[in-house]
Amino acid sequence: CTDYADIAFYKAIYYYNAKQYDKAKTCYEQGYSMFDGYGFKDKAFYADGNRYTTYKLALFKIASDITGYGTSTHINRAMRIIALMQDNTGGVYTHYREDLNPDSMTNVETTALAILAYTSQPRSGNNTDTSNHNLYYTIIGAVLAAGITLILLRRR
Q1: pTM more than 0.85
Q2: Residue bearing the bigger pLDDT, 58 or 122
Q3: What phi-psi label fits residue 115: left (phi over 0), alpha (psi between -120 and 50 degrees) or beta?
Q4: What is the dihedral angle through the alpha carbons of 82, 83, 85, 90, rounded to the nearest 10 degrees?
Q5: What residues are paired with 102 via a beta bridge?
Q6: 19, exposed or middle or buried, with CB in 10 Å at 0-12, 13-18, 19+?
């Protein structure tokens, strides 16, 4: 949870669904601590030439909605950045710089996670029933599988 924001948010969701709320909050907060107002500065940010990754903003929103953690100010900022990363074709750019200019191409995985983030709704009250979120996991898995399949097909 301390090295990569996306892993921190995935684990926060996992622990939350496993009813391990202390671990969920710890991972969420560790991921959130990497947010600098523009994106997530984690190990991948530095390894990739100081480029932010758009899908991590979407995971931040989804994890916030599922767990109920987070503040609306930062979540709204993340969603505005995702909106800026949408291309006129409808796709969402995978990477961007601190000046909020895209620095990549669009892809289906990032676009799908952005759509999920926009359609995700915050958890209401103290309800810890997470059965409604199974659809999100199914879609995320399908999107990732489709992306891997596309990569493998392009290499042939």
Answers
A1: no
A2: 58
A3: alpha
A4: 120
A5: 96
A6: exposed
